[in-house]
Amino acid sequence: FMRTASEAGKISMFGQGEDKRDHVYIKDFAQLLGLCLTHASEGILNVATGASSSFQEVATTITGLYQQDGKKIEIENLPQGSATSYRHFDIGTTLKAFPSFHYRSLQAGLSETWNETKSA
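The chain above was modelled as a monomer; its predicted structure follows.
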């Protein structure tokens, strides 16, 4: 969404963006992978925050970041091609294996990405 907003001045999504997904910040993924390697972990765990956010929430957060810099980003709603879907993951195994590990919130991850993108 950030790349499209920068290039086209808008974010396009299907329907009203009500589909929900668990969005993981790439640095959190890298940190979790590092923990798995350090501890020689074996088995399966879900790389997910446990908190699903709608695409509308993601788009609104991103447009807010652009507004802080005085830029207006349009949100374009395209026809919904399929039924609304929600995805939620159990992160109990991750929390048990790495109790001190915490994912960043959606806002924090997007803000950090925004700040790094601006300075690049």
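Residues 55-68 form the longest helix (14 residues).
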